[in-house]
Amino acid sequence: MTPLDKTKPAANQRPKLPQELNILSVLIGVAIIFEILGWVIKGQSFLINPQRLTIMILQVSVIGIIAVGVTQVIITGGIDLSSGSVVAMTAMIAMSFAQVGTYARAVYPELTDLPVIVPVAVGLGVGLFAGMINGFLIAKTGIPPFIATLGMMVTARGIAKWYTEGQPVSFPSDDFAAIGDGVWPVVIFLGVALIFHFGLKYTRYGKFTYAIGANPQAARVSGINVQSHIIKVYAVAGLLAGLAGLVTAARAETAQAGMGMMYELDAIAAAVIGGTSLAGGRGRIFGTVIGTIILGLMMSGFTFLRVDAYYQEIVKGGIIVAAVVTDVYRQKKRAKAS
Amino acid sequence: MLSSKTSKAVKAYKENLTETVLEITGIRKEFPGVVALDDVQFRLQKGTVHALMGENGAGKSTLMKIIAGIYTPDKGTIRLRGDEIRFLSPLDALEHGIAMIHQELALMPFMTVAENIWIRREPQNALGIIDHKKMAAQTQELFDRLRILIDPLTEVRFLTVAQRQMVEIAKAVSYESDVLIMDEPTSALTETEVEHLFEIIRELKAHGIGIVYITHKMNELFEIADEFSVFRDGTYVGTHASSEVSRDDIIRMMVGREVTDMFPKIEANIGAPIMEVEGLTLDGVFKDISFQLREGEIIGMAGLVGSGRSNVAETLFGVTPATSGKIKISDQEIVIDSPGKAMAQGMAFLTEDRKETGCFLPLSVRENMQIAALKESYSRYGIVDQQSINKLCVEMETALRIKTPDLDERIENLSGGNQQKALIARWLLTKPRILILDEPTRGIDVGAKAEIHRLVSQLASEGVAIIMISSELPEVLGMSDRIMVMHEGHMTGILDRKDANQVKIMELAAR
Ligand SMILES: Nc1ncnc2c1ncn2[C@@H]1O[C@H](COP(=O)(O)OP(=O)(O)OP(=O)(O)O)[C@@H](O)[C@H]1O
Ligand SMILES: [Mg+2]
Questions:
Q1: Which ranges does the record mark as transmembrane (chain A) (predicted)?
Q2: Which of B101, B264, B320, B405 matches a 20 to 30 Å C-alpha distance to A134?
Q3: Which residue of chain B comes nearest to A225, CA vs CA?
Q4: Which of A147, A146, A153 is CA-nearest to residue A278?
Q5: Cβ contact (<8 Å) for B360 and A224?
Q6: Around B304, how many Cα atoms within 13 Å sit in the side-chain half-sphere?
């Protein structure tokens, strides 16, 4: 081993670009493609339209919040399929504590006009609880994350339907609706992303998360309580899904049992497109944020081009697979090196 | 001294006898930020053992991986029996008769020994269904020939590191290749097994197979190698017959400087007992282990592979909690049922298998070093005090002379010996009171070995109590104040430094 040339600054020696740059270039690529298609097909700009971009980012904020939680789960080498259903469950339950007294058919007629903190706490609590159950099942019984969270996916959706026997829950207080007002969802998304970006990088919680994903046995021997940490990670993912449920309900000013359908897959896609490895031990929140925006750009771009919704789903499916294939290919290349 | 005439005749005779199988010239290989090999040459004769020597990170494994088709060189030629070739994949190389045993073991833990050996070449019946019976029989036949005593139908995860190594060796032999590359095959073996391996090697040699043998152990070089090549910092230094040089010559070639004595033990003041173990038992694995460890004392653990040394260490550290027995630390009885509990008592444990239970391969060298220390210190309200721990990491990098472009490099990209050093650093950063080392110098080069011995000695003189497992008897004898010998899960004796010697230890170990 000889340094290439000791006199040169290190930056020149390493063609090793940060992973973020890859993802950013994909984002720019996607944006440019839609821009060109926009001019070719519709004769107008796709990007230079602040309103469209605002709507786009508003739409994906909820996915983004979930994706942050899912990213840290994937970093431990796990997966969370329950987040979409948890969104519905928390939306329903939280909303039932946020209704106004003037509405005659409230779920709890005696419990109306409560301060906004109550539905928020209930919503976060429900999400946290669901996540803890996921984590507990995975850590203590050793069943695969895929199965445990699949169970929660079905159960939580069931609870959401059972809660009001399929009826939507509506008429929230103004304070509650304000959570979903204007750009608040975006602010919440970026705030959560920022906290977890630093959290994963600079806290013990983050370092242990990566270590467990990289090698659980070595993590245990290094003194990490792997089981309790796994529970924490899934609990946090549940908490964020709960938060996403609150935002969804507040924004729609109603809660329905069918809400959040397939959000878990969008969130997983955002994380994977953003460079988080399904093999564990690798991934960044920054990447997930970009991945979320890429997803949003594509949805908004397809709508802009008036591509049929069916095609949109087909293409989205293809992109998720492509992202995973890229990840697998990256691992292989790494194993072979150079 | 031979007359020039006879020596010429001998030379001509030798030239007739030996035939070059493999010849490599002008090889260069760069990784981002490092030149791993530069203008390197190497040649292997039929029916000989050619050793590769060099410090950690000199480029030995990289060169062998190029030959075995894992890496492609940036420059240079490889000739196999005179024809220029370039392998595109390990499979390609195998088909051309080149097999390699890797430095890091790579068997699949949940498959049986037989399945591991014949993977991709499973015997099949007419319907294309794997014939497990035949596969087991083939394995047994192979094991009989190599005199290996392992059941072909056990799953690999139940085997010890040494047994896995033997399986890897058998697997490589089963390819019946012309060239067999062995990258530090003995780093996990005790002397009996090393002897066993050497018998196998001699037999292969007699069948005309050319063997490349990477090792850091000098005595092996003189025992088994016909010739050897030395590499330093990615460059080729020279090739010599092993009969014509001395140990010191080789070290000088490798390191480019003089290296001090191997075991500079500093006499430490042995203090109060810090750990007392009474009747420690793990059902079915080991039984009734009792001893007392004092501050500043180094207890060496000797024994054959499978004698339960590593198991005892794992139990002391709470990896596999004991089924009965007592552990007292500083006069207090403690139930150690998880590594976290052990660490809270100031214990540290360097494990034997750096790939399975040591390295976090996708993470950086820095993260790998820090992880254990974060448990107890260097963080406030959960936020890591990156600045102060970084400083210590850099100190460790220099103290242990870890060769890496920088601390943010993935540990995966470091050479085996340098990974080992990073793991040692991990545990030193926890500032332990009781340090358990399982094969601490595994895969570490001569110069750095002395450095690590010095470090361990120094820790002891600062009052740290140390338990050291090593398969190298000279290391155990040189470092330890007392030597505990194990045999089949029982402790067969504890010898004082002054009474201990190889013969006594072997008697107790092989009773
Ligand atoms: N895949 C890789 N990516 C980047 N650098 C690498 C890679 N593989 C090896 N290197 C670097 O190349 C150098 C040579 O490594 P190599 O593994 O060949 O050393 P070695 O002589 O086998 O050492 P050891 O005795 O410790 O096993 C090292 O400095 C290592 O960091
Ligand atoms: Mg090596």
A1: 21-41, 53-74, 86-104, 116-139, 146-163, 183-200, 230-249, 285-304
A2: B320
A3: B340
A4: A146
A5: no
A6: 16
Residue A238, min C-alpha distance to chain B (Å): 21
At A4 the pLDDT is 37
Contact pairs from chain A to chain B, CB under 8 Å = 120
Give the A window 132-191 contacts with B, CB below 8 Å: none
Q: Does A16 touch chain B (CB under 8 A)?
A: yes
Per-domain boundaries in chain A? 51-328
Give me the interface pTM, i.e. the ipTM.
0.84
CB-CB under 8 Å, B371 with A207? yes
Distances (CA, A) of A84 to A66, A80, B188: 8, 10, 49
Chain segment A225-268, per-residue pLDDT in tens: 999 999 999 999 999 999 999 999 999 999 999 999 999 999 99
Decide: B417 in ligand 1 pocket, CB within 6 A: yes
Residue-wise pLDDT for B260-300, tens only, equals: 656 677 887 888 999 999 999 999 899 999 999 999 999 99
Higher-confidence residue of B335 and A17: namely B335
Give yes or no for a contact between B347 and B277, defined as CB atoms under 8 angstroms apart.
no
Q: How many other C-beta atoms can be found within 10 angstroms of the C-beta atom of residue A113?
A: 13
C-alpha separations of B357 from A141, A258, A294, B147, B364 in Å: 22, 45, 38, 30, 16
Question: What's the average model confidence in pLDDT over A85-94?
Answer: 96
CB spacing of B71 vs A336 below 8 angstroms: yes
The domains located in chain B, with CATH, are: 1-97+177-186+210-260 (3.40.50.300), 272-346+438-511 (3.40.50.300), 354-431 (no CATH)
**Do B174 and B118 touch, CB atoms closer than 8 A?**
yes
Tell me what the mean pLDDT of segment A171-189 comes to.
Answer: 92
In this predicted model, which residue has the larger pLDDT, B144 or B162? Answer: B144
- Residue contact B340–A223, C-beta within 8 A: yes
